[in-house]
Design brief:
43% strand, mainly beta, 4-stranded antiparallel beta sheet, globular
Length: 81
């Protein structure tokens, strides 16, 4: 099951890879990825937006679409394939 959360309403996050990872957007335009249960350690960081990440929508268990005030929709994939 996937979860969609508007990142403007804390805590902004979405699940990723069958709920084993959690993706959070930041005000600096970076996506932080955490392993579930390891909240003190960011496992991956993906820069991409020049401004804050304003929304995230999971497409499937490997792809998350993100949006920012710049009007560009971006996506990240964490697939091992």
């Amino acid at each position: 099951m996937m979860h969609i959360q508007d990142v403007q309403k804390p805590p902004g996050f979405t699940f990723f890879q069958n709920e084993e990872k959690v993706v959070t957007g930041t005000g600096e335009g970076v996506l932080n990825i955490f392993n579930w249960g390891e909240w003190g350690n960011i496992s991956d960081r993906f820069p991409g937006h020049p401004m804050s990440v304003d929304c995230m929508v999971p497409y499937n268990s490997d792809i998350v679409f993100t949006g920012s005030f710049d009007g560009i929709i971006r996506w990240i994939s964490k697939s091992e394939k």
